[in-house]
Design brief:
Layout (H helix, E strand, L loop, with lengths): L2 H8 L6 H14 L5 E4 L6 H10 L8 E5 L8 H6 L16 H4 L4 E5 L6 H13 L1 E3 L6 E3 L3 E6 L3 H6 L5 H7 L2 E4 L10 H15 L6 E2 L1 H8 L6 H15 L4 E2 L18 H7 L7 H10 L1 H19 L6 H4 L13 E3 L11 E3 L6 H15 L4 H8 L3 H11 L5
Parallel strand pairs: 1-6, 1-7, 2-3, 3-6, 8-9
Antiparallel strand pairs: 4-5, 10-11
Helix pairs in contact: 2-3, 6-8, 9-11, 13-16, 16-17, 17-18
Length: 402
């Protein structure tokens, strides 16, 4: 299919060479039955590519199902994928077909495949090699004809070294690999994506689309976007809902953008404080959200201090507190003020020790759960973390009981 027609059909926006390369590979392999491994960070749009592979294949009239392996508890994932017999375990009151049986003749997309337990990986390998599987609690061998598309945001080779992923399964799945570029690697597409999201949200909320001048666009493009397209979409929605005007100029966009730099404490150490690691992008996204309000206070502080130093405004009682008390957000963290382009001199703002990072994280998670009425999938998307991470955090903080 012609590249532009492919983008229009599946709603893909952008002209970056790396994106176009990934689309051409997807177009070439779609008509085959080879297994495909989609690689890319969280939020880059891996599921969209899985749908392209299905819709352009001979299986397009059969079923397609997307399964998030990271959201299924380890004790039930075998049953979900391969089915079970009545009485095979506590709560199995009747027989159940698994996804590999119900999607026979179609395509199954396994997202976050690196989260799959080793035992389930062995079952999956057998399906890929022979098309056969056995239900939980059964001895009868069943057959299926399913095309597998898998995706991960982790390095499977590193997972293999750690003993968390089977090497034979990796090479069986990785017949063709499609690498989807991160948003920071296709900066020329960011203004196009923002305009599309702004138009969509203006239609949804019955308002005029928000526009950005060149200065604001420069700020937008210059962000690292660890949450990729999903994060940009969330920022666009915030701007459409919260911006006081429909035109943002220059640094007026700063309060809505993610924190750029952290100094005085290493990122891995901060992530360890919330139970993550330097490789866990989901945890880092949550940290960015924790620090979001801090940056807004810093921007306001600079505005007021600039007016005072230039003699443009009298010192009000409400302004006096800004220089000495910043809304307490994290414990013992210094945030570099170099995120502002109009200030060439690095400054460090010490954050008042009040709330611990874990306390703030708990409040953020609780707020997201309440916002979406307990719908954890939507809450996880709002926080920029996986559902499995959200489940773990809910249990850790005892939010299930609240």
């Amino acid at each position: 299919m012609e590249l532009q027609a492919l983008k229009q059909r599946f709603g893909i926006i952008g002209n970056a060479p790396s994106l176009n390369h990934a689309l051409r590979i997807a177009d070439q392999v779609a008509a085959t039955d080879v297994s495909v491994l989609i690689l890319g960070e969280s939020g880059v749009g891996k599921e969209v590519f899985s749908k392209i592979l299905h819709q352009l294949s001979q299986r397009k009239h059969n079923k397609f199902i997307a399964v998030n392996c990271g959201a299924i508890p380890e004790g039930t994932i075998d049953s979900e994928l391969f089915g079970h017999e009545k009485g095979s375990f506590t709560g199995a009151h009747e027989s159940r077909q698994g996804y590999f049986e119900t999607v026979n003749g179609g395509t199954i997309f396994l997202d976050e495949v690196a989260e799959m337990p080793l035992g389930t990986q062995a079952r999956l390998l057998r399906v890929l090699e022979s098309g056969e599987f056995i239900k939980v609690g059964s001895s009868k061998v069943l057959s299926t004809d399913v095309r597998l598309v898998a995706a991960t945001n982790l390095s499977l080779l590193k997972q293999i070294e750690k003993g968390k992923f089977r090497e034979d399964l990796y090479y069986r799945m990785n017949t063709v690999a499609i690498q989807i570029p991160a948003l920071r690697e296709r900066k020329e597409d960011i203004p196009l994506l923002f305009r599309k999201f702004a138009a969509d949200f203006s239609e949804r909320y019955h308002s005029q689309p928000v526009q950005l001048d060149q200065g604001a666009l420069d700020w937008l493009v210059d962000q690292p976007w660890p949450g990729n397209i999903r994060q940009l979409k969330n920022v666009a929605e915030q701007i459409c809902v919260l911006a006081p005007t429909r035109m943002l100029c220059g640094d007026e966009i700063l309060p809505y953008l993610p924190v750029r730099e952290i100094s005085g404490s290493s990122l891995p150490a901060l992530l360890e404080g919330v139970g993550g690691s330097s490789e866990d992008w989901s945890e880092r996204d949550l940290l960015y959200k924790v620090l979001f309000d801090l940056k807004k206070d810093m921007v306001e502080m600079k505005r007021v201090m600039g007016q005072i130093m230039e003699g443009d405004a009298p010192i009000r009682d409400s302004d006096k507190s800004i220089g000495t008390v910043i809304t307490p957000i994290v414990e013992s963290v210094n945030v570099s003020a170099s995120m502002s382009r109009y200030d060439e001199h690095a400054e460090v703002v010490d954050i008042e020790e009040n709330l611990s990072l874990m306390e703030v994280e708990k409040r953020l998670i609780d707020k997201a759960i309440r916002k979406y009425a307990g719908k954890r999938r939507q809450a996880a998307a709002e926080l920029g973390i996986s559902e499995r991470t959200l489940y773990r955090k809910i249990k850790e903080y005892g939010l299930e009981e609240e």
